[in-house]
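Summary for the steering committee. The consortium agreed at its last meeting that each partner would contribute one worked example illustrating the joint modelling workflow. Our contribution is presented below. We chose a case with several input lines so that the handling of multiple components could be demonstrated. No manual editing was applied between input and output; the record is shown as generated.
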Amino acid sequence: MAAEPKPSTLVQGTLHMLILKTLALEPMHGYGVGLRLEQISQGVFRVNAGSLFPALRRLERDGLIAGTWQATENNRQGKYYALTAQGRATLKRETKDWEQQSVAIARILGASLGEL
Amino acid sequence: MPLLSRVGAGIVALLRRTRQEQELDAELQQFLEMAIEDKVRVGMSREAATRAARMELGSTAALKQGVRDVGWETMLDTAWQDLRYAVRTLRRSPGFTTVVVLSLALGMGANTAIFSLVDTLMLRPLPVSHPEQLVQVLSRYPGEPRLSSFSWRHYEHFRDDNRSFSELLAVSRVRLRVTGDGVEREAVDGEYVAGNFFRMLGVRAALGRVVDDQDDRLQSPTAASAVVSWSYWTNRLHADPAVVGKAILVNSTPATIIGVAPREFFGLEVGLRPSMWLPAAMEPLLQRPSRRVDGSLGVGILGRLRPGVSIDQALAEMKVLDRFRLEDFARSRSAAFARDFTIELEPAAAGFATLRDRFGTALLVLMALVGVLLLIACTNVAGLLLARAATRQHEVALRVSLGAGRARLARQVLTESLLLAGMGSVLGVALASAGARALVAIILSGRDFARLQQPIQIHVQPDLRMLLFTATTAVLTALLFGAVPAWRALTAAPAASLRAHGAAGETRSRRLFGKMLVVGQIACSLVLLSAAGLFVQQLSNLRNQKFGFQRQSLLLVTLDATGSGYRGDQLFVPYQQLLDRLAQIPAVRAVTISAVTPISGAGASRFISVAGFPESPDARRFVPLNWVGPRYFETFGTPLLAGRDFAFTDRGGPPVAIVNQSLARYYFGGRDPIGGRFQFVGASGSGVTNAPPDQTYTIVGIVADAKYLDLREAPPRTIYLNAFQEPRMFVNEVALKTAGHPAAATDAVRQAVRDELKTVSIARVTTMDDVVDGWVVSERVVATLSSFFGGLGATLAALGLYGLLAFTVTRRTTEIGTRMALGASRADILRVVLNGALGLVCAGVAIGVPLGLVSRRAASRLVTELPVNDLRPLVFAIAAMFALALLAAYVPARRAARVDPVDALRQ
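What follows is the complete predicted structure of the assembly.
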């Protein structure tokens, strides 16, 4: 299991991106976001509440997601977060950036002497 | 997210904090429930699931804080929390808070007050364009204060021939009688200025125009013009917008107001606020014979350096140009006199140097003293805070182990320190402005400045730099003494602190540090007290020295006959009648009249040639002169040693003189001076008496030596001539020896003058005591304030000692109980505590005495005539310190002696 995200910019940024991606699939409450992340990554990412909630608050503050109170599956009130238009745009941009970076990093890591 | 909406969101968040908190709580609750249900679904028992979910969630408090920390408003929020917390804690220990805040306030207040005066008198630049380029021209004769006055003709020479200054201005103070339509007749201070005065300063008129070169030509049609000051315009001319062109009478000469100076421009000298500026070319219209025309008008000179010219280069040029002046002196006085004169230049961004010269040293001394006082105050505060931190270590450790963030704790401690510093500075600023006002009042209480007859007004305003200075002191102090406890909160190992409960975390080194602080305070207070003693001693020496006359019960009245219509040779009879009339006032014991009153700062002097005493011209010294009426020596209490006093009947007879002992000894040695003869040599400086130049005087009396020009000189060889024997009467200083307080006779004197001489006015009434006090204003300021600061410092040190001992006694209660249980008597315990205190005082004295001696030497370099070899002030300071320390130690010592051993051991 991966360690909880350290507050470095890269990892913090990554957590934000992952949350945005999760919410892009469907609006979700805090617990659901954590659960979904764990499920999708097959247990590689496990985000504890101490990191999750500040991240949600920050995204909400920056206008990338918006929270509304709705009834949950078992008929309780829960705060559901959904992507805003701005959040969607940010996710798109960050996904592109990330892909470029990871391709570049993969290329560097996979490089053999002949290619250099 | 744009900054604005982010700020907006923060503010909304602050306002909606409660709702957000509730939402967050609900969200977390929801999270927890979902987690539990998930775990139950995979087969856990509900209790196990709840426990596991809670552990996964962790500390909700920390989590919530993490969420809250996302926004900027939380910073403000926690700061506010810390502040409220600090207020609560401080309120719980009012004694500690009071002492700390007062220490800081007094230290800072005193520093700011003195600094604001230093700033006003010495640092603040004039409100003119590029004040940093301004330079004052001064000259110096060995052994005398610097002279700022030059003759107009020398000024013209400097102005026209120099290449160092883009402009050189001249200004001359004058007292004017002003009246006009709607303007009540009044004597005001004015200045004659050269035509380039305002142009050089870059001062433009607020209304109308300023004096220009055209006005300052002799016989210019616009010479009779006046620029009035803003305050004269508002207070006397009712801020009349149509004032330009208004006609006024200046010394009965018609003049036109041509403009109003800008509000911020007060002239060139802090403390003097002339009401109007007149072109120097107007002087011949007011004064006959004119001194502007013959070039003898005394002026102060200020220049503006050309770009790229240094003050040293300018001085080199001025030294060459100064030969003209020195040759003039050599002709009119003597080559020896001229040889010793030098010219000096001084940066004058803050204006003319008179007040700076007079109070600069005093203010620097005071600045040093309050610096030491601030040191004591800060040490005191540091000691108190350290002791407090030690007693609170347990509490801090407890809070750390309960999960308080260390950074947050450190921030709380710092907040508390900053709060203390803040309260201290607020109170300090209030004290400072009150203190500065009081200081100005003391300075102004010497109403008559020697050579500075105008009333002084000093406006001390707190300006940005002063506030910055205070704020910096406050914050630095706070950080300095706040850092130690904060650092300790960060590094303390809670377990160790909790375990070492009894010793309250006091280590040996920390105890030693606390003691060192107290020792340092005692040493510093000793320095302050001994300095104070020194200055008080100096003041008393100055006041009680041998003047050669009695200063008590002397009323001095200056008559002004200029507008009376009497000519000089018509005044003999009226003045004699006035003296007779004054002598009949019941409270008056003796009365006389003279040209010069002693130590008034003004006088006349000539070279003399004594029959039978050959003297080379170079060896000649000026001999001070005074023209006095009969009973002068009786009135002033100067003993007549031989011969006779002057009489009214000398008028018409052969010219007579009375000389003092020093003169008799120098010129006559063992011979009897009575009957000796002398003549004056060289041109008369004033020509006021119209006596023929080759007049021979016969000595008819010898009097004891008395001070003449100023308080600090040794009595010079002096000649007294009979005022009633001169061709013209020009003496105006009436002196009355009274029974009881001299000021009580003032009304009767005024009445007599009104009755006898209807058109002669009274220019000034003062007492000899006031004149003496006027000479020692700066010494009085230093003596009064240094005593005050010394007392304050000693009190603070005593408080510091008391705090340390009280703390020690509390900490050692168990030990004291044990000792008593083992047979120590109460007297033994008392002795132990007092011995501890004595040890500290002895250490403080041991450090303080050498420091005190060194600082005395340093002070004596700044202040001449300090009685540095007098050890009494130091002894007094040591005794005072011991007495205060014993007083401070007595209370805790008694508390220690009253410890009940049973109670103490049970604790």
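The CA atoms of residues 75 and 517 of chain B lie 35 Å apart. Confidence is low (pLDDT under 50) at residues 447-453, 501-505 of chain B.
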